[in-house]
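Task: fold both queries, return tokens.
Query 1:
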Amino acid sequence: MPKNTKKTDSQEYTAKDIFVLKGLEPVRKRPAMYIGSTGIEGLHHLIWECLDNSIDEAMGGYADDIEVVLLPNNQVRVTDNGRGIPVDIHPETKVSALETVLTTLHAGAKFGKKVYQVSGGLHGVGVSVVCALSSYMRVEVCRDGFLHYQEYYQGIPKARVKKEGKCSQSGTTVIFQPDKEIFQTITFDRKTVLNHLRRQAYLTKGVRLKFEDQRTDKKFVYDFYFEGGLKTYTKYLAGSNNLIHENPFYVAKEKEGILVETAFQYTEEQEGYEESFANNIFTLEGGTHLTGFKSALTRVLNDYAKKNNYLKEDDENLDGRDVRIGLNVAVSVKIREPQFEGQTKTKLGNPEARTAVEAVINESLTEYLEQYPQDARAIVMYCLLAAKARRAASAARQTVLRKGALEGLSLPGKLADCSSKDPAESELFIVEGQSAGGSAKSGRDRKFQAILPLRGKILNVERAKLNRMLESDEIKALIIALGTAIAQDFDISKLRYHRVIIMTDADVDGAHIRTLLLTLFYRHLKPVIEQGYLYIAQPPLYKIQDGKRMEYAYNEEDKTEIVEDMRKTGAKNLNVQRYKGLGEMDADQLWETTMNPANRSLLRVNIEDAKEADNIFDILMGEEVVARKKFIQTHAKYVKNLDV
């Protein structure tokens, strides 16, 4: 018998050690469980939760006017002209229904079948979570001709619901201030809010969504209103690219209690957009509804191609990649009880959603192809061309690789590698020029920092094919150093460094090289960005010296502050040096200011809005001179520290 090693007397464990979190305490204790994170994404999720309630009123036909306002002091106001949250006494909680909804998890009308047929916030925790994570919240309700309000502090009511005069229309207003004790930042991003509102306006046709930013003296106002719904949204996704077919596909049809709305448009731009929604919630990771669309699209186009002799008996079928080249599609379902993965609702899991979407697309797309034969021919021929290009590219890629373009994946000689073999702690600095590369090699920590110097400006891959790219020694060296391979052989799990840092000069040439590298990563190594592994180094712009005292400024504000501080302490002979190149710093200075993890500042590259990022790369790196000229003229006034 093994010896009993359980503790008996040393540590008491009784009922008093079991902690019961009451009310909204669990939310404040573990906020990430409810909003995904306490970073910038979780912060904005507070707005989405409030907005969901207003959108639910609109989907039910009770509201047609919604407003989101960013107020001073990091407050937000969300208003709708819906029915207003009930304020009468709840039969179970014995307090106002308003207080019950705001202070109780899993409380709301969305669990019943009568008030909301479909809704985004079916978990019933949204607005109460916002209340819990706000240092201050005020909710105003107009119902039955009277204005009622209640205020809360960190989820706790300050007093009972009060009646404050009369009001002419119904609706709900939520004002909240995120708790700085909870969040890493409580400053909202205007563009993030605008992008979300734009999507919601497309999805809720006929409803006006107003946005206002009152945080500065110059107020910013923007209104969204679309009658066309998803049909209009696909035009937005397609942008200014040349269309393959004239009439966009659109259907809105109910199947077994699920409303399916889908629209798509093909363009000559090979990279398209596939966006999906469930009860107006943007399902970033897709789900069963998007899977159902993809399956039906491939099946219907293959059937049409065979029926009309575009594909012969012995021809290889079009696959999913072929039929989605240049495709801009939005798939939306309204479903009574959606099953999301987690409270942040990024993926739909309902099997019945796939069945419903497949059935609707099978029927409606077949009718569309018969109704518009010219469009049908254009789409099928484009897909066949994509299939031919895919097979040719695959053969060309294999030929390129067989010819030894990557030379057996031996590490390039110019790479000064680190000794660590653990990608999680390893860093690769991509450095402009031999001079800066020399300083970086001398100043680095050899254990975990690798240096790859590049000579000059790399190839603009926006206009180059794979074989031309792999003829570039600089690009080939970078791909080999990363270890991921490229194109269909790309494997993010083989990435040798989990911090890939672009370190270029702070001048026009440095900015150009940085843009060329970002284009390479965005177009051909995008998972490196998506996984959060790509960074941009932030070297100082100025060295400010007064005798033996020396400080570095990373922007104009830093410089002004340091200079003023030095003058206050008696400095008279200040020397302010503007760095134009990394090579102007010796190894110790480069380590101290830009490479030392204890002191440096790194800018992580992310893609919050893939549509906007793609458009910008097309404009900056593509062949359209007029579009690039217009972009430069529009944004030139925002440029700072431009060296000429």
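Query 1 returned. Query 2:
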Amino acid sequence: MTRNPVKHFVSVAAVLGLALTAAVAEESAPPAVALPAVQREFRAVWVATVSNIDWPSRRDLTTDQQKAELIAILDKCKALNLNAVVLQVRPGCDALYASQFEPWSEYLTGQMGKAPEPYYDPLEFAVAEAHKRGLELHAWFNPYRAHHPSAKSEISDKHISKTQPDIVKKYGKHLWLDPTDKRTMDHTMNVVLDVVKRYDVDGIHIDDYFYPYKEKDADGKIIEFPDDANWEKYQASGGTMSRSDWRRAAVNQFVQRFYAETKAAKPWVKVGISPFGIWKPGHPEQIKGFNQYEELYADARLWLARGWVDYWTPQLYWNIANPDQSFPVLLRWWAEQNLTGRHLWPGQFTSRVRDGSANWPASEIIYQIKWTRLQPGASGTVHFSMQAFLKNADGINDALTTSGGVYAKPAIVPACPWLDDVVPEKPDLTMLREDGAPTCTITWQPAPADTDVRFWAVQKRAGDVWTLNLVSAETTSLVELAVPAGEGAKPTDAVAVAAVDRVGNLGPFAIITLPDGRAAVPARTAAAGGEVKKEEFGQVQ
């Protein structure tokens, strides 16, 4: 992406249409305003739809009830100063959006294949409502799970188990796509790219379900995944890899495609993966536990080292003090594997926070966030799941946002310079006020070369306190009181606005000051039929 190197500025004299001498302008100009630094941190939450974990809460809600629940979730995220939502849109070869490839999810309507009534597209709605609140929306896919045992309705004729039964395998209580079959990869990529191309999502995301976690039969014996047919074909063709390496190679091929084909479609859409938090036991030395390399056939370290992601979210679902699976020890190890400098945003088991001594206190999550901030190369976390925040488990919402808390102030998602390192330009900023009106309106427009603004970062100062808010690209104005609202109240006396593009680049701030809490630039120009009445005007820098 490139932008023309055009400088933009706002001339108060030009806005007023008045001839002001340089001496007058210089005499009235206030000292330059010093802005506080803007914090960069990814603060996201997984919103799970499988089994109706987070949303919708039930399968029999009306369209209006579903929308209300989703809006409540987004409002809660905004109140907690989160800046991204990772919404599960494909729990098991079904869709919580209008798909040409897969049927509507029963978690939405109670019946697989049944659309919402009255009709709406939940993903389209979620993207729009998230962006209104300055939140990124990432679409979360399960790449290979075809059917979850919590789904109880009749399987739709449009489901992959009916349309391509050869690539669907019964495994324990699940249906699973065969990861070694090219038709599986093609179908899953068609699903992913359909969302990337048709929806204005900020990112796409897959979790730790590659090959399934092992299941046991009635006698307690491990069930082998039934990929015998493709394995025999591979051997017959002269293949020499071990069966484990063959499985891993297939998963590697998909992950590489997942990244490359997304970038070919929309380079700015961020690609994230949240693997199981341990690559192999013994890496690092003290770590014990599940081996995803051998059990899920997921060579997660390879994917990170090759840069097949834009952000990396290992599920570090253990506490700090656990020596066998220590959160900071594993975080440091993953940072050391990050050879291409991608974002490291670990997953936190925030739903482990509940009232009662058998679970974590809210302080565990707070300390994990602080540990992450101390780890070079890590710049945020993702919480599982929204339930903890909806319940305010152990007062975690208050602990996060209290004065001095880790989320007390908003933050902007870190930029991805490997995708685009050209920052937006300074917006055109003006202030309008009708003669005698108690309020003034600050308006802004992007520089002509900036066509990919995602959000506006708006900072306001009242007295000596600055506040930051992210608003949608469509929001281009705000109204402020020009005089104090009451005894002791401090009106806004400065506003600063900067563009944030789709990959998180933050441009320079345009700043306007409101001398003595008053601003008077005409709301309508004479050319538009309004009468110019000047009291005093704000200063733009």
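Both queries returned. Flag for query 2: Confidence is low (pLDDT under 50) at residues 1-30, 517-539.
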